[in-house]
Amino acid sequence: MNRMFPNQWPSTADQPASVDHEFIGLSDITGFLRRYIGTIIACLAAALLVAGFYNLTTDPTFTASAQILIEPKLPQHLQEGGEVDLSLDTAQVESQIAVMQSEKIAAMVLDQLKLNDDPEFNRPQAPFLLERFRRMGVVVLDAFGLRKNARLTSLWEYFGLGVPQTPATLTDYQRARRTMLIFSSGLDVRRIGVSYAIDISFTSLDPEGAAKVANATADAFVREQIETKADAAREGGAWLEMRLRQLRTQMNQAMAKAQEFRSRHDYSVGDEAKGEDGAGAVPTLEELEVTAETYQKMYESFLQAYTNSVSQQSYPVADARVITAATAPLYPSAPRPKLVLAFAAVAGLILGIGLSFVRHTFDWTIRSPRHIRDNLGVECVGELPPTSWRRESDHLDEVTKYPHSRYSHSLRNARTEISLAETSRPIKLLGLTAVSNDRSKSSVASNLATLYSMSGLKTLVIDADVRRSTMTTRLLGPSGALDKPCQDPVRLNIVRAPGRPFDVLPSSVVDARHLLAPSNMEAFLSELTARDLAAYELAAYDIVILDLPTLASGADELIVGSVLDGVVVVAEWGKTHVETMRELVRTLQASRTPILGVLLTKVRAMKSKHRRA
Predict the structure, then answer these.
(1) Which of 28, 69, 73, 440 would give a disulfide with 601, using CB separation of 3.0 to 4.6 Å?
(2) Span 166-218, pLDDT tens digits
(3) Rounded to the nearest 5°, which phi and psi values hold at 436?
(4) Which residue in 609, 561, 603, 607 sits closest to 585, CA to CA?
(5) Which residues of 198-222 are buried (b: 16+ CB within 10 A; e: fewer)?
(6) Which residues contact 346 (CB under 8 A, 6 or more apart)?
(7) CA 390 from centroid of its chain's CA atoms
(8) Which residue has the higher pLDDT, 255 or 217?
């Protein structure tokens, strides 16, 4: 993995000490956006389509809210003692909220409104994916008026999208549990701030039904509190009644013993009635009267508590009351089309940028002069933009038909860069090669020859790519110079390119005369560029451009580049791999071929200096 990063960003050891190369500038960001604008727009469009699909296939839901207030109550024995500050802590309020969300309250609401047998209430709010596609299909058919088309309707029903499927039969227990789950999922109970007010919200497909359920939940909670207090008072009253009977019996027995003692006129006190050892002592009259009085006070106390309990059973008061009743909402709470679309747009942009960054990280193709300089150690002599798709497919005479196009201006700038290259001799023998067999190399050779010819230089183009004679076929035609026999000397096979201001040597002559051998090519080129016009029948050429074989044709055929003044490597922007380009450069350097630089073609994001040129 570590080998991937040098292909994308240069290491600090190999790059020059330039601030522009060390940091990512605005031009890099804009170039990144221009390069991956298609990916970003595609992700954005996909996210918006998903959001639109969700909005069209989701039923609107309505939320109704009711509010209740929990009031802390003082115990009965503290109400008469003056003002006492009593407050509820968070745990107590949360306990009340848990009671509202309990299945006991849910069962009370379901029984009151008879929701177990309500088909509209038991319909799921979020449809399944198949149901969503069915609804989308209905919307599309209605939009184009194709609902009456029998073929489309039968095809739609064949895929199970015509009519909704019949739900499976459920038992009473399963139906009750399903209704309970639907109720729990739609109910939302929250505390309002730090107050004792609690908001009860219910979400349903029916606005009237949502208000009814919210109000029924609030009423059920208040009723549950009243019933709980009544039950507690009833149970306490029963226990007090039983205890009163016991105390009444004990009080009567104590009073009877005191009366019996008093009737015997036995007023002995102290230890006179005790035996010598203290055993068999008889209680005194004072003790019997105290015991009877104690039982009487206990009986009166329990009788008062029993009276309070009976009064609470007859009139129980709840600690909560409804302060706001729920009403049917006028507008749906979900889905929110604008919010969903905004969220989808943001998510689509984030996804598109992230996907583009991943593609950029793992993209090992050449996309800028910086990549060429940092990964290959050679300079970029120019960047050529792509030609318009409306024009002819060959693009061999682009500079003639469209002299003011961006392509023509960029190629003129590249020609200037090639002429100013630092070499030991003037550039008269120029070669063009590439990694693979494509048409960009031949198009550059033809247009570059046209530029040299238009500047007053006599120019010759040699189609040395014998395995793929693109130049000869596209300039002379498939039945042109290829069918003519090869003449001696070789210069007699040079022909004028039809409609072009330069001459061409066909690839068949190069193959027949073995001109790819460096010695043969050197002898032929020295003959063409000689100034002794008396020895030859034609004038010498000022510039000779060789359309060399590519790396895919074999490294042995690139040795002929060693006899040239310089070779330009043509690379296609965004398609030529860095490793193959590095292999081509190593092959040329091994054959002692002078490399003038790399010419990028079909560049979509050109650097500023090439745009100004």
Answers:
(1) 440
(2) 556 778 888 889 899 999 999 999 999 888 999 999 999 899 999 999 999 99
(3) -125, 170
(4) 561
(5) bebbbbbbbbebbbbbbbbbbbbbe
(6) none
(7) 37
(8) 217
124 contacts 44 by C-beta, under 8 angstroms: no
pTM: 0.58
Average pLDDT over every residue of 66-75: 79
Dihedral of the CA atoms 598, 599, 604, 609 (nearest 10)? Answer: 90
Whole-angstrom distance, CA of residue 230 vs CA of residue 368: 85
Distance in angstroms (rounded) separating the CA atoms of residues 516 and 511 = 7
pLDDT at 546 over 50: yes
CB atoms within 10 A of CB 236: 17
Asked whether the beta carbons of 551 and 581 are under 8 A apart, the reply is no
Q: Is the peptide bond before 316 cis (omega within 30 degrees of 0)?
A: no
DSSP state of 78: G
| Long-range contacts formed by 4-13: CB under 8 A, 24+ apart | 4/361, 4/362, 4/364, 6/374, 6/375, 7/364, 7/371, 7/375, 7/578, 7/579, 8/360, 8/361, 8/363, 8/364, 8/371, 9/374, 10/370, 10/373, 10/374, 10/375, 11/374
Two structure tokens written together for 611: 């745009």
Place of tokens 């008269």: 428
Q: What is the pLDDT of residues 95-145, one digit of tens each?
A: 999 999 999 999 999 999 999 888 888 876 555 656 666 666 666 556 655
For residue 365, the cross-strand partners are 577
Q: Where are the alpha helices (DSSP H) in 369-492?
A: 369-376, 398-401, 406-419, 440-454, 470-476
Place of tokens 């693109």: 470
Q: What is the pLDDT of residue 152?
A: 52
Contact yes or no for 563/433 (Cβ under 8 A) = no
Average pLDDT score over residue span 10-29: 52
d(CA 492, CA 293): 150
- What's the pLDDT tens digit per position in 525-542? 887 766 554 444 445 788
Give pLDDT, residue 4: 36
Backbone φ and ψ of 425, nearest 5°: -145, 160
Q: Which residue is listed with tokens 């727009």?
A: 41
CB-based contact 540:531 (threshold 8 Å) = yes
> How many CB atoms within 10 Å of residue 327?
15
pLDDT digits (tens, 9 = 90+) for 381-418: 999 988 765 444 457 788 888 888 899 999 999 999 88
Characterise 367 by phi-psi region: left (phi > 0), alpha (psi -120 to 50), beta (else).
alpha
Radius of gyration of the chain (CA): 50
Give the lowest-confidence range in 197-201, 443-447, 473-477, 559-563.
Answer: 473-477
